[in-house]
Design a protein that fits this description.
Number of helices: 17
Distance between the termini: 22 Å
Helix content: 25-40%
Largest sheet: 7 strands, mixed
């Protein structure tokens, strides 16, 4: 056990605030912001501090400590060479306020990343500014909004989302002031074109959807859906959360989308988790490019004449789109994330199609391995209706309803039991259209041995008696949390003894 506040150190030692400013003026704060008593900081030596945080790290679970099959969030290995590149002095030790001629290297990387992302998604322009996927969604919807205002189409107030959509889709549109129209999926989990036809009209601003969808299934009717939305003057938005399943095989541009956000921290191997750091650039077709946030990087043409030396010119510069929506982030995006993903893209660019193929292969292999092992353990029919013979993409969903009916254990119980087996629990109860849902994504970086062992251990959890599973996890540092209580009674500071 280790607690920072158990260490008291030598009295009167530690960091002290500076004396009054050299010019004689006093530092002052409004009375309502000034402390009435000294803060109760612990006093530790460096070894004590290091031991505390090392102890904390051992209580945590991460991709570097075990298999992390968290569906939808794409937790995969991040090549360490990307970290080395991101920490080079010419990259890590610069400031966003430096003049352009001092950051040409960074600007060239930004420009290349904009171009590479445009190509792989079939878009015409990209901004790297958004620092999360959800912020990318909001940014794209704002671009849509300004596009329609510029055209005088103020009646377009509705955004269509399928019932299997990520929750951030309707949230992003609602934040921009749009009305959300939810349409049901078909029995197989895919989009219902008849339901879409019934709601599109002159008031349709956009449809937001990911492909493959949140069940890991490819939307075969996506081109027709795009035609329906475009036919009434609306726009198509691609949620890029599942982009790693199709990279190099097809693109949102080919499917008819007008805009897309990229989860760089998922598709292109930026470490994430625990709230960040993320990166959610957006790509758009040409008609939306004038509305992108400012600034983006542009490249000047070089002067090749021997008589005219471009000594005072530099190639890369910040550019403000003509009808920009402004800024959505205080600087120029999450530079560290962009650098890591640029390094990943430059290293694996020609092999990114193979990355997607391996992600799909691993997902389908694990899907059937789990079903085989679970059937041997007495639990069958965990696939969505009609999905036994369907090829899933990078992730898949299982219904633990048969286990709940025959064994009295829920998807949550199985997830908590997997924690005791040394795994991160898969996503549970999402998407909502699958009863007792469990969503699993093995990613392309896991070996066959890892997948085989996980499938076997999954079946072992199903064979644990229900009473034990109801109390799982048992071996972890923290036992099962009352999530409803925790959400309603947030503890955001250290519980000092009063």
């Amino acid at each position: 056990m280790s607690h920072l506040f158990d260490h008291h150190g030598a009295p009167g030692k530690g960091y002290a605030q500076p004396k009054p400013l050299l010019d004689g003026s006093e530092l002052s704060l409004p009375d309502n912001l000034a402390r009435k008593s000294l803060p109760r900081w612990p006093r530790l030596s460096e070894p004590e501090m290091v031991r505390h945080y090392t102890w904390l790290s051992k209580r945590n679970f991460g991709i570097d400590t075990g298999f992390y099959p968290l569906g939808s969030c794409t937790m995969k290995h991040n090549p360490r060479v990307n970290e080395v590149i991101a920490q080079l002095p010419g990259i890590a030790d610069i400031h966003p306020h430096q003049p352009e001629h001092q950051i040409q290297g960074l600007l060239s990387i930004y420009y290349e990343m904009q171009e590479m992302l445009s190509v792989c998604a079939g878009m015409d322009a990209v901004t790297l500014q958004p620092v999360a996927g959800a912020q990318g969604e909001f940014t794209a919807i704002r671009c849509f909004q300004e596009y329609f205002r510029h055209r005088g189409e103020h009646q377009r107030t509705k955004v269509i989302v399928p019932d299997s959509a990520h929750g951030t889709n309707p949230a992003s549109a609602a934040m921009a002031g749009f009305e959300i129209i939810e349409i049901p999926s078909k029995v197989d989990g895919r989009i219902d074109l008849d339901a879409l036809r019934a709601v599109v009209g002159d008031d349709t601003a956009a449809m937001m959807i990911t492909n493959p969808n949140t069940l890991g299934l490819f939307e075969h009717d996506i081109a027709e859906a795009s035609e329906l939305v475009h036919g009434v003057g609306g726009l198509m938005y691609y949620d890029g959360a599942n982009f790693n399943a199709i990279l190099g095989r097809t693109s949102p541009g080919l499917m008819g989308f007008d805009a897309v956000h990229y989860n760089l921290h998922k598709t292109f191997s930026q470490p994430h988790g625990g709230g960040g750091p993320g990166s959610g650039p957006i790509g758009v077709k040409q008609h939306l490019a004038p509305f992108l946030p400012t600034p983006i990087v542009s490249r000047r043409e070089a002067i090749e004449s021997e008589q005219e030396q471009a000594v005072d010119e530099f190639w890369y510069t910040w550019h403000e789109p003509e009808h920009t929506i402004g800024k959505v982030q205080q600087w120029h995006g999450n530079a560290g994330a962009i650098i890591r993903c640029w390094a990943y893209y430059r290293r694996y660019g020609k092999e990114l199609r193979t990355m997607s193929e391996h992600a799909v292969l691993n997902a389908n292999y694990l899907r059937h391995a789990i079903h085989r092992e679970a059937k041997a353990a007495g639990v069958d029919h965990m696939f969505v209706d009609g999905a036994e013979t369907v090829v899933a993409k990078h992730e898949f969903t299982l219904s633990l309803a048969p286990a709940k009916e025959s064994l009295g254990i829920s998807a949550m119980d199985v997830a908590k039991g997997l924690l005791d087996m040394g795994y991160m629990a898969p996503t549970v109860y999402f998407p909502l259209v699958v009863p007792e849902c469990m969503m699993i994504e093995p990613t392309e970086t896991e070996s066959k041995d890892t997948l085989d062992t996980f499938a076997e251990d999954f079946a072992k959890v199903l064979q644990v008696d229900a009473e034990t599973l109801h109390n799982a996890p048992i071996t972890t540092p923290v036992r099962r949390v009352d999530e409803v209580y925790a959400a309603r009674n947030l503890c955001l500071r250290h519980p000092f003894d009063e």
